[in-house]
Write a structure and sequence with these properties.
Radius of gyration: 13 Å
Shape: globular
Helix content: 25-40%
Length: about 110
């Protein structure tokens, strides 16, 4: 898949997320990808990309508009990881949660 095709696929991946999922890191045991997403008001693509790059190669990052009126866009990041993503997804979730807390000034 080309970088353009990967970027174009992010909205489809984001649309498949449960509406009650405000943020998270997901993976598939079938491939070597992790998907970071955050639809909170204070979502920060720089924080997401910096953290995601510690787990693998960032293939695409985007702010995807939400179809729901008044909803925040989804900041999304697709990462190719060098080992099975299921091995590191929990570590990535914890690290992203801490990074967001520290960045918001609430921690």
């Amino acid at each position: 898949m080309s970088p353009e095709e990967i970027r174009a696929s992010l909205p489809r991946v984001a649309e498949a997320l449960p509406k009650d999922s405000t943020w998270g890191v997901t993976s598939s045991p079938k491939n070597s990808y992790m998907f970071f997403h955050d639809r909170r008001e204070h979502a920060n693509s720089l924080v997401m990309e910096t953290l995601a790059s510690q787990f693998g190669n960032v293939l695409a990052i985007a702010s995807i508009p939400c179809d729901d009126p008044g909803s925040e866009p989804v900041v999304a990041c697709l990462v190719h990881v060098p080992r099975p993503p299921t091995d590191v997804v929990e570590q990535a979730r914890r690290a992203y949660e801490i990074a967001c807390r520290n960045n918001s000034g609430d921690g």
